[in-house]
């Protein structure tokens, strides 16, 4: 089978390495923030997990012809490990966020919990793996959180959900953080190509969402335009775009850097909401975005310093694709 050039490029480690990392991160922000907009749009047409289930089904069907051969050549050990990462990254994260909102957690508060991913990563890396971050990196992460809280302050509200429900978005965030660290520590011999990895994640997550949604209602698609558009939007932009670019960036940079870039996701989401739903913008949002940008700059600058410190004296650092 002759694969389209875009598919071949996505599967080639050397091809994406030619794209500047900041450009990949900018695309990640646009695609990742589209997920919150898609959830906002779809909630008027279908249960949130039903949309998530069908977006996984759609991506699984679309990608299968392009990854079938690679999957057959992959060992069961590698498949099982990457499937576990996929369950944590997609099923765990999306189920925690969407179920929290469905049970009464305000959407703005759930999004704020999700945006604590850089802090969750740092805490898990320090507490579980024993990794140590510098004080400047911690400062950058805290400044980023402050910017998110400032920019989203007007959209935050404490709902009437039971106290335990507020833990669901936090657990979802920690699930993605654990998957991210697992993916970064996976040996190169057990890493899969981008498209087979994305297919596997959607496949196992689709099964998980089928079990969850199947106990609450039917899995049949809803025959209205809003449902179809919701599935197409979230499958294309949020899953193949958002998750695809997230894993792509992780092959080029540290987990801390990639996650900290997502501090800019809330203001980008608000721009989406302004363009699509005519929601108002404010100077407070712009100020929060600026503060988050300062936090990201501190993290990126400190990582660059750390890389120079680890570089052998008098030699030039060599760049090569990870994974």
From TrEMBL:
Keywords: Membrane, Transmembrane, Transmembrane helix. The chain crosses the membrane at residues 15-33, 45-67, 79-101, 107-126, 138-158, 164-182, 194-212, 224-246, 258-275, 281-300. Residues 28-150, 167-300 form the EamA domain. Its main location: membrane. It is found in: Membrane. It is a multi-pass membrane protein. Belongs to the EamA transporter family. This is DMT family transporter.
